[in-house]
Amino acid sequence: MNNIRIKGKQLIIACSILIIGVIFACCCFNLESVEQPTTATVGEEMTVKLNFGYLDTYSGDGSPTKLVNGIIGILAPKGWNLRQNATLTYTSTKGDGRFAPMSPTTLDNSNPGLTYSEAMMKNVGMGPNIVKDMEWVPFQTVEQIPFNNSQNITGVITIKIKPGADNNDAYVALGYVLASTNDGISKSTSFISNCASPYYYSAKFATLTLTGGSTGDLIDFINPQYSFIDPPKVLDNDFVTLTFDGNAGGVPSALLGANEVFFCGDAILEDGTTKNVCRGTKALLTKYAENQYRTTIWPRSFFGLTGNEKIVSLQYFITDATGAVKVGKGGSTTDPFVTRFKCN
Q1: Are residues 190 and 244 in the same domain?
Q2: Quick one: DSSP state of residue 102?
Q3: Torsion of CA 86, 203, 147, 112, to 10 degrees
Q4: How large is the average pLDDT for residues 229-257?
Q5: Which residues are CB-contacts of 61 (< 8 A; sequence separation ≥ 6)?
Q6: Structurally, how many domains does the chain consist of?
Q7: Rounded distance, CA 262 to CA 326, Å?
Q8: Is the pLDDT assigned to residue 131 strictly greater than 70?
Q9: What are phi and psi of 53, to 5 degrees?
Q10: What global pTM score does this model have?
Q11: Are 185 and 29 in contact (CB under 8 A)?
Q12: Which helix (DSSP H) or strand (DSSP E) does residue 74 occupy?
């Protein structure tokens, strides 16, 4: 009987700890609005304001307050280098302060094995963006913030960004996520009656057209393209995947429904000469879904470069086996797809 009583005590204690743990986690965020310009100029500072609310429904740990750091994640093109090109401050009903970039290696304990940046990409994603050359950059409050039970906190986060460190024009949806070090980028396993969402974070996206770049390139991160390369910033010694969508954005191309499609184009070299590859076995793209094709190439080998020869750009069409049907930029038969080789 004594053993049974001890086990019963242990069971009660374990259940109490579990209940306390669940209650402790009940807090909810609301990123109420994002005030972001719709246009900006490369290298010129732009200001974004995030209006937010935070409700800590229960603390459950027996203490009147707990201390946490607020987190803001920003999704932007990798080439913008936001850790060096963004500053964040906040004003709130709990006081004012600033954010600092989190270490890229800091792990989110609510997502085992993932950094905060990786957890944001996994759980929040990229919104309407389809080009993968983007990253979530997390920032956290320098000061810990005290929270009391059932305390509703409101405030404004001011973000100043110098966009386009890579000097590229862009059409992109920037992302913003609000969270805390208490729960990370996670979802509640219990019902939170006072919260509009079961998530311990809140995210929004806002589109931006960036101009004034010096490269002459516009990287469209949002709209479906008939053909693009991934990653978009490469040199001729990198492996690159070339993709073709015969029905991009629901707009049929001249190659809609084709069984086979081929690369046909020129590599423009640094000295102004060209190397041509047009159709044939090595130029065949693999069909992996209806109207979806891709191939991965090593440009130096694909175009037969030797010595110090260097590719600066590609100009190409996607064609059928005969070359009679071809698709270029925007579906044109005369305007080729153009990709510049660069590392930034």
Answers
A1: no
A2: P
A3: -90
A4: 92
A5: 20, 24
A6: 2
A7: 9
A8: yes
A9: -135, 150
A10: 0.76
A11: no
A12: strand 70-77
* 328 three-state secondary structure: coil
β pairing state of 240-245 and 70-77: unpaired
264 with 199, same domain? no
What is the residue range of 289's domain?
224-340
**Domain's final residue, options 153, 176, 211:** 211
CA–CA dist 326, 228 (Å, integer): 15
Residue 127, helix vs strand vs coil: coil
260 has pLDDT over 50: yes
Same domain, 240 and 278: yes
Give the residue from 153, 29, 175, 24 showing the smallest Cα distance to 97: 153
Average pLDDT value for the chain: 86
In this predicted structure, which of 15-19, 101-105, 124-128, 320-324 has the lowest mean pLDDT? 15-19
Residues 230 and 87 occupy one common structural domain: no
| Contact between 53 and 151 (Cβ < 8 Å) | no
CATH number at residue 88: 2.60.120
Among the candidates 144, 179, 211, a domain finishes at 211
Neighbouring-strand partners of residue 134: 77
Q: How far apart are CA 256 and CA 252, in angstroms?
A: 6
**How far is 76 from 71, CA to CA, in rounded Å?**
16
Cα–Cα distance list, 116 to 77, 109, 239, 261 (Å)? 17, 9, 28, 40
- Total Cβ atoms within 10 A of residue 12: 10
Task: Indicate whether 6 belongs to any domain.
Answer: no
Alpha carbon 4 to its chain centroid, in Å, reads 54
Strands 262-269 and 240-245, by their bridges, are unpaired
CB-based contact 295:277 (threshold 8 Å): no
Instruction: Say if strands 218-220 and 169-180 run parallel, antiparallel, or are unpaired.
Output: parallel
Helix (H) or strand (E) holding 95: strand 95-101
User: Within 10 A of 155 (CB to CB), how many other CB atoms are there?
Assistant: 18
Whether residue 239 has pLDDT greater than 70 = yes
